Write the structure tokens for this entry.
Amino acid sequence: MHPTEEIIDLINRSLQSFQTIPEEAWSAKKSPTVWSKRELLGHLIDSAMNNLRRFVVSQYEPAPHVVYDQEAWVALQDYQHADTQELILLWQLLNQQLVRTVNRISDEQMLLTCNTSKEGAPELRTLHYLVEDYVVHLKHHLQQLAHR
């Protein structure tokens, strides 16, 4: 299955599964240092935003440096107190835009790179790698959401 088809399938299945999660379960935390379901969904929103930026900027700028501090992003955006349905809609729309963007990337452009190093020497990743890795990351966290 093409990565974008897989993302669409994950969106559709997740939207159904999200509706079965009681509202109080979205904010429950096992400990102060473990993300709630709402914060985990916020992390997936941040991942979509940052990867969308990587997929776009890498096509016109040589090896852009695009990284983010996931803990800071989740905390600073206060996902824990956000409206759950708004977060679900934002996650859905960002992923649909990501799919549209990735579908327009040519095979040749998939070889372009992005620097994802948080510090030190550059870590150049091809767009092909980043798209595949995005799907793996998305699946991993969606599984966590379903079983937390």
